[in-house]
Amino acid sequence: MQSKDAIELGRKHNVVMVDLKFCDLLGQWQHTSVPFHRLTEDAFEDGFGFDGSSIRGWKAINESDMLLLPEAPTARIDPFMAQPTLSLICNIVDPITRQPYGRDPRYIARKAEAYLKSTNIADTIYCGPEAEFFVFDDVRYEVKPHAQFFSVDSEEATWNSGSGEKNLGYTIRHKQGYFPVAPHDRLMDLRTEMCQCLEAVGIEVETSHHEVATAGQCEIDMKFDSLVTMADKLLWFKYVVKNVAFRNGRSATFMPKPLYGDNGSGMHVHQSLWKGGKPLFAGDGYAGMSEMAMHYIAGILKHAKALNAITNPTVNSYRRLVPGYEAPVNLAYSSRNRSASIRIPMFSSSPKAKRIEVRFPDPSCNGYLAFAAMMMAGLDGVMNRLSPGDALDKDIYSLSPEEAKSVPQVCGSLGESLDALEADHEFLLKGDVFTKDLLETWIEYKRSNEHDPVRLRPTPMEYFLYYDV
């Protein structure tokens, strides 16, 4: 789609406003809007000015002027605005130098794709994230220096089996939400509405279902796509899920671990390298994989703890990544063992279906950064011909203590992952894909705005355990 096509799309739908969307450092869409008459072909080159000083992790007030450059192929009609609105995803550039802004996450992802081509190893990486989420009927929380609480509720939650005149007993027990039909699953119509909205904005949906946890845990899977396009789609996915839930009087969250005692929400990311339209991960090795795929797996495993700071970037992420529970914390690979951090799906023997599934990421991450970082780790394994060792095809819970000790695990906290990223980040700097400025900014922001504020606050559970000491 060219700029004139994007403008024509707006005319066809009698658009009155243009919504200019861009991604902040932490992975959330921000936006500003202009009347449709301002969207000329020149505007795609000239851009739209805005103040970037208040965007999380961006420049200080003395370097705040920036430009939004809309990308014509991203033009979509927004499905939620009352007045016809054309949505465009934008890149960020400096208004003086016209150079891309180094802390724009989408620019990092674009550089990652360019770097992949420059290596001549492959020309395309396909990513397929499975972003799980919860849909709650009620959400309340508050944090004060002297008091704090949270409370969520869902009509299908097991704790409501004895409450409400209209409950009728069909609630979902803890860890039994996969895959009961209605009336236990009360969210199918809502998920179908989400699927319809996703299809309307050009996102192909592969499946929709209730997930394992009680209280409205769901999953809708999108068809894979190339790195930047898939990261764009992940933001559309979150936007659609949240807005469909909201207009139906509910609230959706991609928080990794909103409930104690039940499964958290992960985001398994399927990945494969291609060149000249041919898959590079298919071969005659373990699980039908190529030597390149094994090297790629080794790179992910080698740098996994540093990757955690980007793929699992919140304090809450590590409430899910706890050994002995549901999350895949073991840094190993397997064709079928879902306790391994990397799984090789075996649903199809087609070479085009050969891929790896990295299972430790969660949906709180910034897709642009997470997809790029995992690709850089995998490429480091390919370039250095790293070996992933033997597959972990045993039941991890049946291993002897000695065997279990030999299997490394992901980080146990956000602080540990930030330390790991500080110690291991050279692989991210290759090709100037990530920069030291961006990584230092990321680490400092996460420590000062998330890790330390949580570390300094007592929790209600601590009062329960320790008030009477």
Topology:
Layout lengths: L2 H10 L4 E7 L5 E7 L7 H4 L1 E4 L13 E6 L5 E2 L7 E9 L11 H15 L4 E13 L1 E6 L4 E6 L34 H13 L4 E6 L6 E6 L2 E2 H21 L3 E3 L13 E9 L2 E2 L11 H12 L1 H8 L5 H4 L9 E5 L5 E4 L12 E3 L8 H17 L17 H5 L8 H10 L2 H4 L6 H21 L3 H7 L3
Parallel strand pairs: 1-6, 16-17
Antiparallel strand pairs: 1-2, 3-4, 4-6, 5-6, 7-11, 7-12, 7-13, 7-14, 8-9, 10-11, 14-15, 14-18, 17-18
Helix pairs in contact: 3-5, 3-9, 4-5, 5-9, 6-9, 7-9, 7-11, 11-13
Question: What is the structure about, briefly put?
Answer:
By secondary structure, this protein is of the alpha+beta class.
Explain this structure to me?
- With 469 residues, the protein is α+β, with helices and mostly antiparallel strands.
- It has 2 domains: 14-101, Glutamine synthetase, N-terminal domain (Ubiquitin-like (UB roll)); 124-466, Creatine Kinase, Chain A, domain 2 (2-Layer Sandwich), CATH 3.30.590.10.
- The protein has helices at 3-12, 43-46, 105-119, 188-200, 227-247, 291-302, 304-311, 317-320, 367-383, 401-405, 414-423, 426-429, 436-456, 460-466, and strands at residues 17-23, 29-35, 48-51, 65-70, 76-77, 85-93, 124-136, 138-143, 148-153, 205-210, 217-222, 225-226, 251-253, 267-275, 278-279, 330-334, 340-343, 356-358.
- Strand 1 (17-23) and strand 2 (29-35) form a beta hairpin.
- It is globular and about 65 Å long.
